[in-house]
Amino acid sequence: MKQFNAEEVMGWLNSMQSELQAIAVPDDAFFMIGIRTGGVDVGRHLHKALGLAEPLGELNISFYRDDFSTVGLHPVVGPSQVPVSVDGRHIILVDDVLSTGRTVRAAMNEIFDFGRPSRITLATLVQRTGHELPIRADIVGHCVDIPDDHTVSLNGSKMTVSIGQKSQ
Amino acid sequence: MNKSDPQFNQFNKLHHFLSIDGLDKATLTNILDTAEGFTSVNDKSIKNVPLLRGKTVANLFFENSTRTRTAFELAAKRLSADILNIDLVSSSTKKGESLLDTLRVLEALQSDMFVVRHSDSGAANFIARHVSPTINIINGGDGQHAHPTQAMLDMFTIRRYKGSFDNLVVVIIGDIRHSRVARSGIGALVTLGVAQIRVVGPQTLMPADVESLGVVVYQDVNKALADADVVMGLRLQNERMTSATIPSTGEFFQVYGLTPERMKLAKPNAIVMHPGPTNRGVEIAASVADGKQSVILQQVTFGIAVRMAVMSIIMGHGEQVREAEANPA
Hints:
The structure holds 2 protein chains of 2 kinds.
Chain A: E1 2-4, H1 6-23, E2 30-35, H2 38-50, E3 57-59, H3 68-71, E4 90-98, H4 102-114, E5 119-128, E6 139-144, E7 150-155, E8 160-165
Parallel strand pairs in A: 2-3, 2-4, 4-5, 5-6
Antiparallel strand pairs in A: 1-8, 7-8
Helix pairs in contact in A: 1-2
Chain B: H1 25-38, E1 56-61, H2 66-78, E2 82-87, H3 99-108, E3 113-118, H4 123-130, E4 136-142, H5 148-162, E5 169-173, H6 180-192, E6 196-200, E7 216-218, H7 221-225, E8 230-233, H8 238-242, H9 249-256, H10 260-263, E9 271-273, H11 286-289, H12 296-315, H13 318-326
Parallel strand pairs in B: 1-2, 1-3, 3-4, 5-6, 5-8, 6-7, 8-9
């Protein structure tokens, strides 16, 4: 079990913020969308740090997952909230952990049901090994190389990250 | 199939949705929470979600009902399922084909779910017992027995407007005896724990053992409405109007009709519900049906999300059942 405290996690968030500022273009404000629930926690920090005017969008991807017929519906964590049009916008899609890439695929499918963004940049607090799809984050807070039976989890209220073996 | 409760499969997962009876509070709450998630599909420019892509839902309507059929059809389409509307009122069942023959044909057409509407009580249960175990059944109303998705959309509407079920006084007015909507609604309200359910209507339209359902019977509609939070009207069915169970529709309206004057007896923020279609001037005054407190049209809209929730919850374990069927232990 490895723990990263709030200070370390804040360092990752700061570097993500700098990278986002570096790709920001005047007159083309980002529209930030977090994937529930961990991506919303990370998104909230970045959204505040960047001082974005529009509210943070929130995606609940339960209805877009590809494992529905095997494991059924995941617990529904509140409806998606995308308060402004995504058409022609530069979306910053935020998640806490990128592993297989299936969540991001589902999230992109859902975003395209809201409209046609001009660009999507993927920002993730932790990018871990174990990807199953050709999806990589553009902006990463921290990279870890861990076996498949390990899991990375974010504590959204304390903003700490722990890595350990999956409890079966 | 689970021997003790036909709604659950061998893995103890909700597999059919036939009745509110036998479902606990957690199951009902999960349906309401899931439906809450589906309400946001209306915000998208593409209002479909891909959950049931590649699945086929067959609407088996042995009894006419345009609004219920349309609501199920739209719910299935929003979930990206293919939908077959089979009008059994005027089809081969009339030509002498038995119900079981019809079911075999629909199974052979590779349907994954049947929504069943029938004038006989117990029809959906009968079909659930006789179909292939991989097929899910939803009861879209059977005789005088149950109409569980209507009950759930009523519960969803109540929760949306009242926040929770505790402390609520709910009044149900009219033909309780013949109403599957009332029967299922009472079951759900009891399970979700409202403070009091009052029923009021002519003695001839009141079931004999109605108190055993957990309701309080009132003779006087004015007393029943006192301090009510939720007022539910029921459709007085045409066949009852011509039979001897009520004196006349005019008299029914005079004694039990939901008028603006009577609504003043309920709490000022009380909501008025009705499963539709409404008989204006019989069970409800037009000014109440169209009034500020009426949530009748919202019920219709919420019905889509609620039916999407039920469909996706019961179809979510298809792979597990198919595997068990293919590899019997």
